[in-house]
Design a protein that fits this description.
Elements (H helix, E strand, L loop, with lengths): L4 E8 L6 H9 L17 E6 L3 E7 L9 H15 L3 E7 L6 H10 L6 E6 L6 H12 L6 E4 L8 H10 L18 H16 L9 E9 L5 E9 L2 H8 L4 H18 L3 E9 L7 H6 L8
Parallel strand pairs: 1-3, 1-4, 4-5, 5-6, 8-9
Antiparallel strand pairs: 2-3, 7-8
């Protein structure tokens, strides 16, 4: 009889290479927010995959980049600390992007770890198969990758092959989480992330990095509907105006889109109230970062 395997896997890479899309594809449902804007993921999002063979806990880390403010410092600490805690690292790259200083920055950090590293070449649906060989050639000399696996996270191509290889590298171990649990994050965290995702989807360029979402209240009512009050934190009054929109139209749209995903997550009707609050320069203030859930002492 095969021994039960379990372990921890870090998904790392530059911002916007499709790490969250890959995590959601692996887990089979949405637990990490997705946006075409860089630095969408700020905390470690842990996804749990349980099969007959074993259990793997995947950690989707913030995109590794040179930090520009205290929030950036926090995101980098989360990403690099994760590398010390895992049994395997998936270095995800975008097949359509050339090797640049961002990739070099990550490779230099991977050179310092003894953890096995897979190169996962994502977005292969966007290139010709012949171009793939050139990408592989470019990377294979940069680091001693244990495996090089091309995938399309959005289409699902080759993801099962990747998972087979991941399980091959997992040690024997216990089941850490119940079989039906797909994330270690509380529902409030995922709800706040779903609201933040919708803000990213509907607002202009100047908004994304300067918002946080705080769940003020989340409670089940007698009729089994869930009431949620959430505050969207921005840094400037002008951003507050943008998020609210003309006669509240944008805020309404954010609420409508977020409610749909939250209902899907919770499996019940949701009444969602959104507020917008200005907190000047919050990304550089440790106290605000702590209030909004970015606690360095957790890592």
């Amino acid at each position: 009889m095969n021994k039960y395997k379990s372990g921890f896997v870090a998904i790392i890479g530059r911002p916007n290479v499709g790490k969250s899309t890959l995590l959601n594809r692996i887990i089979g449902q949405k637990i990490a927010i997705m946006s075409d804007k860089p630095q969408t993921t700020r905390n470690k999002v842990q996804g749990v995959l349980t099969t007959d063979e074993g259990q793997v806990v995947f950690m989707d880390t913030p995109g590794i980049h040179k930090p520009k403010h205290k929030l950036g410092d926090f995101m980098m600490k989360v990403a690099t600390n994760t590398l010390r805690e895992v049994d395997l690292i998936l270095f995800v790259i975008d097949a359509t992007e050339s090797f640049g200083s961002g990739e070099q920055f990550i490779v230099e950090r991977l050179e310092q770890t003894k953890t096995p590293v897979f190169l996962v070449i994502n977005k292969i649906d966007k290139i010709h198969p012949e171009q793939l060989l050139a990408v592989i050639d470019k990377y294979r000399t940069r680091l001693d990758f244990k495996e090089i696996i091309p995938v399309s996270a959005i289409e699902g191509n080759n993801v099962n092959t990747l998972l087979t290889q991941v399980f091959d590298y997992m040690p024997e171990g216990p089941q850490y989480y119940p079989a039906d649990q797909v994330t270690d994050h509380p529902e409030r965290f995922i709800v706040s992330e779903l609201v933040r995702e919708k803000v990213l989807h509907v607002t202009r360029e100047e908004i994304p990095h300067s918002i946080a979402v705080v769940i003020e209240q989340m409670k089940e009512r007698n009729n089994e509907n869930v009431y949620i009050a959430a505050t969207i934190i921005v840094e400037r009054s002008s951003q507050k105006g943008i998020i609210i929109g003309k006669q509240g139209s944008l805020l309404k749209e954010i609420g409508k889109r977020a409610r749909k995903d939250i209902e899907s997550l919770l499996g019940s009707k949701v009444f969602l109230e959104l507020y917008v609050k200005v907190q000047k320069d919050w990304r550089n203030r440790p106290l605000h970062l702590k209030d909004f859930g970015f606690k360095e002492d957790d890592y």
